Amino acid sequence: MTLWVFGYASLLWNPGFDVVETRKARLQGYRRSFCMRSIHHRGTPEEPGLVMALDPDETTCCDGLALAAPDAQQDEVLAYLRDRELISSAYLERLVPLTLEGGEEITALAYVIDPDHVQYCGGLPLEEQAQIIARAVGGRGPNTEYLLNTVDHLETLGVRDADLSWLAERVRNLAA
Prior knowledge:
- This protein is an alpha+beta fold and about 180 residues long.
- It has a single domain, classed as Gamma-glutamyl cyclotransferase-like (Hypothetical upf0131 protein ytfp), CATH 3.10.490.10.
- The chain contains five helices and seven strands, in the order βαββαββαββαα.
- It starts with a strand and ends with a helix.
- The model has no long low-confidence stretch (mean pLDDT about 95).
- It holds the Pfam family ChaC.
- Its EC number is 4.3.2.7.
- InterPro entries: ChaC (IPR006840), GGCT-like (IPR013024), GGCT-like_sf (IPR036568).
């Protein structure tokens, strides 16, 4: 059975594993949002950044990519993703139903936010998000890079998100 992984933020542009097939996909019941304080990858414990997570919301959906891992590397891919995504236990590993472009349904691995975790910060005003993202830097680099790469890749896929576009423009202005 193919190991599918749902990419909705940095996995879009930096999966970190070989991908043998990529398909546009939709996840119902979740929204992509900057709702997790990043104390490792895009910030520090002293100056947390923000990263996106899948936040439960029955009224909406999240568009992204279904990424297929090579069959012979599934164990290695799973170990890599757990090391990368579960670094602070703010994400929960879940199998979720995705609808691929064209209507086919598959089950994929996704990392969703734990709203009870101390790093959860859903509902921050956009201006506050921009201020945090503009200054934070973590082990994987500047928080601005994370935002701008994600927005660029979503736009390439034809996924337009008004809040993310506003954030990208505001962060560019703050960084200038």
